[in-house]
Design a protein that fits this description.
Layout lengths: L23 E5 L6 H9 L20 H7 E5 L11 H11 L4 H14 L15 H13 L5 E5 L7 H18 L2 E5 L3 H7 L2 E6 L2 E7 H8 L2 E10 L4 H11 L3 E6 L2 E7 L5 H11 L1 E8 L3 H9 L6
Parallel strand pairs: 1-4, 1-5, 2-3, 3-4
Antiparallel strand pairs: 5-6, 7-9, 7-10, 8-9
The chain binds adenosine-5'-diphosphate and magnesium ion.
């Protein structure tokens, strides 16, 4: 008899959060952290071993059909559409599946087709579509029945910049105008910065952070960078660095080609103080303060591991 060894992987372990209606939440973590597993449990395709999960007052995997009427799902890695059928046929079949009255189907289809600019490829088989077109088709399919909740698992993966912007605009509009609740997993932190106020960060199946994006930045990326464009060069760069090091409440990150970059802690010193100190040593032509972005936060939290 053959025996097999299994390693138990706890894909999700003690994850606890509540999402209110109308929220737009980013669910982030490094590759393998358990994001897709969580989304699959929330959509009802995976059954957790233990724990409590309710969506709209029901248990998703016990009442998959009813849950399905209230949610839309897009997995960026895998289309939910029928590959060999023209997009319009997939949408028509979904309209039947959701038992949409004809007038509702027409109205929603027309609106989505326009918003997502789907007309040029509505009658093409899905397998012939570009990735960006396919994703728009998937979004139309996910929103056809006006779900309360939209789950997006890496919806911008592989898209070019224009397609990403279109996708973000659409999600923002659904959230704003329809009040759609959105749970978004993405490797593109620009998606998060443009769309989400709230961020849930997980790692190894556990929640590391749940709160406002702005608070997350304040906590994990408390520094700012002052970038000073220098007009004249009274002190040679090397000496200037020495002089500055002694006199300013910050750290000289670089001093090259007439551009000086100084890093300081926003909570400990004001930008005015740093600027005043720089002015004592250099003639400044132009100044700007660079805020940290989510990328900096994530690097602090996860090191070099890729966030997907
Ligand atoms: N079908 C599966 N069988 C075994 N392990 C799995 C399966 N799906 C996911 N896992 C494991 O569960 C963990 C979480 O995976 P996943 O939820 O896909 O992570 P993420 O979406 O955050 O990248 C990983 O360690 C992954 O290898
Ligand atoms: Mg995943």
């Amino acid at each position: 008899m053959m025996t097999r060894q299994y390693d138990e992987v706890r894909a999700v372990d003690g994850v606890d959060f509540t999402v209110s209606a109308g929220e737009l939440v980013a669910y982030l973590g490094p590759n393998g952290a358990g994001k897709s597993t969580t989304i699959k449990m929330m959509t009802g395709v995976l059954v957790p071993t233990r724990g409590i999960l309710e969506v709209n007052g029901a248990v998703p995997w016990r009442d998959r059909e009813r849950n399905g009427m209230h949610i839309g799902v897009v997995f960026g890695q895998r289309s939910q559409l029928w590959w060999d059928l023209p997009l319009i046929d997939s949408l028509a079949m979904l309209g039947k599946l959701y038992r949409l009255p004809d007038a509702t189907y027409r109205r929603n289809l027309d609106r989505l087709v326009e918003l997502l600019d789907v007309t040029p490829f509505l009658y093409q088989p899905v397998r012939q579509l570009s990735l960006g077109q396919r994703m728009r088709g998937d979004l139309a399919a996910a929103m056809l029945h006006e779900p309360d909740i939209l789950y997006l698992d890496e919806p911008t993966i592989g898209l070019d910049a224009v397609a990403k912007v279109r996708m973000r605009d659409f999600v923002a509009e659904m959230n704003r105008d329809n009040g759609t609740t959105v749970v978004l997993t993405t490797h593109d932190l620009v998606d998060v910065e443009t769309l989400c106020n709230r961020v849930i960060l997980i790692d190894s199946g556990r929640v590391l952070y749940d709160g406002k994006l702005s608070d997350l930045k304040a906590r994990y990326a408390p520094h700012r960078i002052l970038v000073a464009q220098l007009a004249a060069d009274p002190v040679p760069a090397g000496n200037r660095a020495e002089a500055l090091r002694a006199g300013i409440p910050g750290e000289v990150v670089s001093d090259e080609d007439g551009v000086l970059k100084i890093r300081f802690e926003a909570a400990r010193v004001s930008a005015q103080e740093v600027i005043a100190a720089v002015n004592d040593h250099c003639v400044v032509a132009d100044l700007s303060i660079v805020e940290p972005d989510l990328e900096d936060v994530v690097r602090t939290l996860y090191g070099d591991r890729e966030v997907v």
